[in-house]
Amino acid sequence: MSLTTKEIVDQLVKVLEPSRVKIHTDDLQFYGNDWSNIDKPNPLAIVFPKTIKEVQAIVDLANRLSFPLVPSGGRTGLSGGALAKDRELVVSFDRMNKILEFNKADNLVICQPGVVTRALKDFAESKGLFYPVDFASVGSSQIGGNVATNAGGVNVLRYGMTRDWIKGIKVVTGTGELLDLNRGLKKNATGFDFRHLFIGSEGTLGFIVELTLEFTNPPKDLNVMLMGLNSIENTTQVLAIFKERLDLTAFEFFSDIAMQKVLESKKLRNPFNHSYRFYALVEFENNYDEQLIVASELFEKCIDSEYAAEGVVSQNKRQAREFWEFREGITESIASYTPFKSDVSCRISQTPAFLSGLDKILNRFNPKIEAVLFGHLGDGNVHINLLKPIQMDNEEFREECKMIAERIFDLVKSLGGSISAEHGIGLTKKPYLNYSRDEAEIKYMRGVKRLFDPKNIMNPGKLIDL
Length: 466
Ligand code: 2HG
Ligand code: ZN
Known about the structure:
The chain has 466 residues and is of the alpha+beta class. It has helices at residues 5-15, 25-31, 52-65, 117-126, 143-148, 156-159, 195-198, 232-245, 256-266, 290-304, 317-328, 330-334, 351-364, 394-414, 439-452, and strands at 21-22, 45-47, 69-72, 89-92, 99-103, 108-111, 166-173, 178-181, 206-214, 222-229, 250-255, 278-285, 310-313, 340-345, 370-376, 381-387. The protein is 35% helix and 19% strand. A hairpin with a 4-residue loop joins strand 15 and strand 16. Zinc ion (ZN) binds at residues 375-376, 383, 422.
């Protein structure tokens, strides 16, 4: 028999100060949702632990009284991983937001999971160092959520994913036990590295309660080149040419619809006199103008081969930032359409085949549904956002989008790619997990889930069903 909210709250206020247990409707709506906006939040309450001991006490209670838990960070996820729609207790990490320790000799920082990604990046900068994971929502997302979803972003080409910067994690598992994994070591050949199981596990095995992250040296004098291209194939052709001689920090692309929506919603000035079907944004370090000379030669080569039609290069930091806004402003500029999102990847060598297959799929479906294409082409990751025409009925739109998504996933599967490159599986991609993982692997995933969370209280229903 399930307990009432009051009965559960009465127990919670014995382990947390009552002011850190919230049941007001506004709080439930705010903390129970994420940016996926796919369903109505309906959590039973929100709690704000401050210490690892308090997190353990909450997990113990959930085990004893059998209620489900959902972790909550900056709630910027796009797959419904932090959505609490089934009377779960939301555990917000907002009050566990401290940077605890920095060690110069190790280049390591120890922090709590609720530290906002931007704050961590600023802290690295204040030490003359660099935390390289970067994406549009760094101002709201929290580092615990980044780790739980193995966040990617715009610098993966040079610096890898969040996973590559995590040198230690403390987690409270579904049984309430505390595990101290890897403790910041660079070398540690002592068997299974559970740290990597928790990275990307979307809160289904346990809660991340402390992190040890590595910083690196900052890149110098970044320059940004923006190019207008006439076809989808040109995007990968330009990438191949730029990769020949430059160690890029980012290679992004976006379609003209994306550009138009950003120009309109952010009231920006188009740096080109014409519209092009696609745009490529290339970022590289430019020490003493050496790389800029190479980039200009590569750009000429693109023009001569008719892969690029026009290009502009940033003259200063402010302009580089402005060029980035065309790319990073896309998600926000189309948010009012509540787009149907896909986030797929394949190996770089397969991206030309993927993009030409994608073009064919999109041409086969309702031409009124606009497809906004963009993403991190340099690492093989493409975002596809489908926009609902105003006159189209919601249900009809969703059904058509599902059919399009399934054809895209077939294509991804045939190329050995992933149906979720960086946004996670959460709720929205769960029905499609078998396109990227085979049955045997999913069986082992279920086994791992049962081991760390025997009572299925940690973010149940997300990623896999038992
Ligand atoms: C980005 O690359 C984010 O801007 C969001 O991953 C992508 O909105 C999206 O589909
Ligand atoms: Zn992205």
